[in-house]
Design a protein that fits this description.
2 helices, OB fold (Dihydrolipoamide Acetyltransferase, E2P), about 150 residues
Length: about 150
């Protein structure tokens, strides 16, 4: 009797452990294996969202920590920020969270993987008659503070 109860307990615990793994990527994400040069910290992700899905992906959240892919449109001369564009044509500035890292000009036109915090940038309407007592409700765009960036091959 003890062996039967023990066997049943082992089977149920094995089923519970195997049910904990999720091998299917979430909607809008694709599995990636980046192999390019790393700028900043190592990008350690299993899924990434295309930058065009950003507004839909964020929803009403003011900021998220995630990984996105995008094409570099411009790198500032100082190398402190770069610009990517989403599918709607909006420019999204990207900067490093930590000082000391610089973006090389060679990134222009290349697809990169960005791991960091994406936040909505709000436009204040407090001083205008239409926005009296409303504060900052309208999102004016996005900004990405990157922990790490990796060039895609």
């Amino acid at each position: 009797m003890k062996k039967a109860i023990f066997s049943i307990a082992v089977i149920f615990s094995a089923l519970a452990v195997s049910a904990q793994t999720n091998t299917k990527p979430t909607d809008g994400a694709k599995s990636i294996t980046p192999k390019g040069k790393i700028y900043g910290e190592k990008v350690d992700v299993k899924t990434a969202h295309p930058i065009g899905d950003l507004a839909k992906y964020m929803g009403r959240r003011p900021s998220i920590t995630t990984t996105v892919t995008g094409k570099v449109v411009k790198v500032e001369k100082s190398g402190e920020t770069l610009t990517i564009k989403d599918n709607t044509g909006k420019s999204i500035p990207v900067g490093f969270q930590k000082a000391g890292y610089k973006f090389p000009q060679s990134l222009v036109g290349k697809t990169i993987l960005i791991d960091g915090i994406i936040s909505k940038q709000y436009t204040s309407t407090e001083g205008t008659p239409a926005g009296r007592n409303k504060g900052s409700e309208d999102a004016g765009g996005y900004r990405i503070e990157a922990k790490g960036i990796q060039l895609m091959n």
